[in-house]
Amino acid sequence: MISRRPASWTRDHERSSVSMLRLMTWISLRLGRRPARVVLVGICLYFLVCAPSARRASGAYLERALGRRPRWHDRFAHIHSFASTIHDRVFLLHERADLFDIRARGTEHVEAAVAPGRGALLLGAHFGSFEVLRAVGQLRGLSVSLPMYPDNARKINAALRAINPQAQQGIIALGQPDSMLRVSEALDAGNIVGILADRSLHEDATARREFLGAEAAWPVGPLRIAALLRRPVVFMAGMYRGDNRYEVVFEPLADFSEVERGARAAALDRALDTYVDLLEGHCRAAPFNWFNFFDFWASARAAPAPEARP
After folding, report:
1. Cβ-count burial of 308 within 10 angstroms (0-12 exposed, 13-18 middle, 19+ buried)?
2. Are strands 205-211 and 2-4 parallel, antiparallel or unpaired?
3. Model-level pTM?
4. N or C: which end of the chain has fewer CB within 10 A?
């Protein structure tokens, strides 16, 4: 079923502030990564105690992903993984990838997608670090663009400016008259275009799929973009593995380059199934890397019963 409902996560209070990012950037760049991580522990403890709604959402998700009731150290590990990826963004945006042990697998799928002289469309989630994915692309001489909705784009740009005003964002605002054209131009220029496809916004079209034991609402817009542009799609994940270690994974997801208009709906249906299955597998294998600190299943529970699949 495709439905259109406001996303509950858009109503959540944004606790992280630009001033805090500036402070952490100042501490990190002057003291170094390891001393700054001591401060990070205090920040994580604060959120664990003082952010009850995020704590409850984390616990509900972890119970599904772990297959048991999460303990306090599980909840802390979840918040700490998120904080670590945000903190490491400071160094990655200052071109200090040398501080990290970054290992990549499945890069052949991206290389195959860009081999015909066109860019690659990557579909990811709020899972691990997008910035480390960007670093891998840049190490291979590829520019990386990130389409997102204007509200999020403004927040991300403000945050990135607080970290490094000279950083090249590569943000493409969706929902604008020229959004599709800009995405297409980025791909035609040989760029990597990465879309985080696990959140809907405002009244985006969504479709239900079972995820970690219950139905959730998934945005269909990112895959529609791929279908309209007739592009192959690669699943991406940049998992935080603790300390300074990251594992970047690329997996084939779908190929819309030869799909005719009449077969598009069925191809979209299969692609969404594959995307959700891949994300669920990674959430079970690396549960502390999925960073949606809200009731992800709420919109599916509130929506009317399904009538048809997309």
Report:
1. exposed
2. antiparallel
3. 0.86
4. N
Backbone angles phi and psi of 258, in degrees to 5? -115, 10
Two tokens, residue 253 = 């997801």
**Three-state secondary structure call for residue 302:** helix
In 3-state terms, what secondary structure has residue 212? coil
pLDDT (tens, 9 = 90+) of the chain, 310 residues, equals 444 444 543 444 444 456 666 777 788 888 888 888 888 898 899 888 988 998 999 999 999 999 999 999 999 999 999 989 988 988 888 888 899 999 999 989 988 888 777 888 999 999 999 888 888 877 777 778 877 765 655 666 666 666 666 565 677 777 778 888 888 888 888 888 888 899 876 567 889 999 999 999 999 988 998 898 888 899 999 999 999 999 999 999 999 988 888 888 999 999 999 999 999 999 999 999 999 898 999 876 665 544 444 5
